[in-house]
Every structure is written in C-alpha cells, then in structure tokens.
C-alpha cells in the first residue's frame, strides 16, 4: 500500500486534472494556447494518478516536469489576467503544486516507496526472463 504522502499527492494530481476541465467549462471558449493546454493536460494528469499511486518513478518525474512548467506558466497568466479572481485561482494552483511536489519528493517514506517499487519491478523482470 502506498504511504499517505503519495496518496495525498495523487489526490492533488487528480484535483489538477479536474481543474483543467473546470477552467474550460467556466471560461468563454475560444481556441488559444490555454484551451489546447487544458485539453491536453486534463487527460494527461488524470492518466498519471494511478502510476504515481503505484510508485512508478517515471510518473513521478513526468508530473514533476509538467507541474514545474505549469508553475512557471502561471506567471504569464498572472500578467495577462489581472483580475482578483484569476489571481486567487493562480495562488491556489501554485499552493497545490508545491504541496504535491513536496509530498512526492521530500518525505523519506515517499522516497523509500518509489525506490522499493523500482526494485520490485526489476526483480520481477529478472525472475520472468531468467
């Protein structure tokens, strides 16, 4: 069973995926970079929830890169949309990203879990091939 920090991080990734859909539903629809970003990221983030939960290190690295890029992209959105509502949503997104990334990399239980999952996968391949 995955440790609590991994489960909470996976839930945070799911919240990010849902947020990508909600943003499309509640903002005026037009084809632009943001629309494509949300259409691509919603299923991508959703697809990473279970692999992260199961301790797949490639998924942890992938979501780290995606959240890092999104974290930086929010600065552009901050400048383009100076409304208080947009800024509050961006602050919430930044906070959620920091929590998810911290939970995926900082706790010793998380690092052990991802390391053990990688080693158990290696042993399973060795047993089936040799």
UniProtKB/TrEMBL annotation:
Superkingdom assignment: Bacteria
Alphabetical keyword list: Membrane, Transmembrane, Transmembrane helix
Transmembrane segments: 7-29, 35-53, 60-81, 87-106
Protein name: Uncharacterized protein
């Amino acid at each position: 069973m995955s440790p609590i920090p991994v489960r909470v991080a996976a839930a945070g990734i799911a919240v990010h995926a849902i947020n990508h859909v909600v943003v499309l539903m509640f903002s005026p629809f037009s084809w632009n970079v943001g629309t494509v970003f949300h259409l691509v990221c919603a299923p991508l983030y959703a697809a990473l929830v279970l692999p992260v939960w199961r301790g797949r290190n490639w998924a942890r690295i992938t979501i780290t890169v995606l959240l890092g890029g999104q974290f930086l992209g929010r600065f552009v959105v901050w400048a383009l949309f100076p409304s208080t509502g947009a800024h509050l949503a961006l602050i919430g997104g930044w906070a959620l990203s920091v929590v998810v990334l911290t939970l995926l990399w900082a706790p010793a239980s998380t690092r052990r879990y991802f390391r053990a999952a990688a080693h158990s996968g290696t042993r399973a391949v060795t047993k089936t091939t040799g």
